[in-house]
Amino acid sequence: MGFIYIILRMMRHVYSHIFICLLSFTALFAQPCQLSIARLRYGGGGDWYTGPSMLPNLAKAAKERTRLPICDNTAVVQISDQNFFHYPFLFMTGHGEVRFTAQERIRLRKFLIGGGFLWADDNYGMDRAFRREMQALFPENPLTLLPNNHPVFSSFYKLPGLPKIHEHDGEPAQAFGIFFEGRLIVLYTYSTDIGNGMEDLHIHNVGEERHELALRMGVNILSWFFAP
Length: 228
Known about the structure:
By secondary structure, the chain is an alpha/beta fold.
């Protein structure tokens, strides 16, 4: 089902009416669980696995609060995996180094241009390596700051902008994006720790309010990408 979503996403900005009709048709005959959120396992030595409760909590919130057919189970995928293109929505986080091989860059670029989406959440320490990889991946499409009125902040919940979960040296929370032919294909949340905010409450003690804000931001991102 994920592969179908990538195909439909490719058609969306050109044939929006056909996209909506096909999406409705597939939803009519599909099983209740259609969409799995996938965590990206990357090379370079960074802790891609940090925060194991992030995505399960997000999937649970999206399933309970929206009509999106989100699966309870989340996946882990590498760019070189045979089933890589089965997961149109990728999430990555970490504190340290991120490094893609030349072959991985080609495949990831093809995935993103073809309708896939990557949400990267800096867990305090990933910024320099991630920006370097994005520059290599899309030298012609730099990361740009998203305005607070971008639809990703209001697709389900009306948020004034990116929530601030952790201090990160006191810098403001910032959302950056890479656009390809007018479509947002990479979302980079920086100086905020949305992922940590989505984790079980007792892990980082962010408090119920910030935990809820983090979940709402995650639900918004899913709703913005998957909803017709």
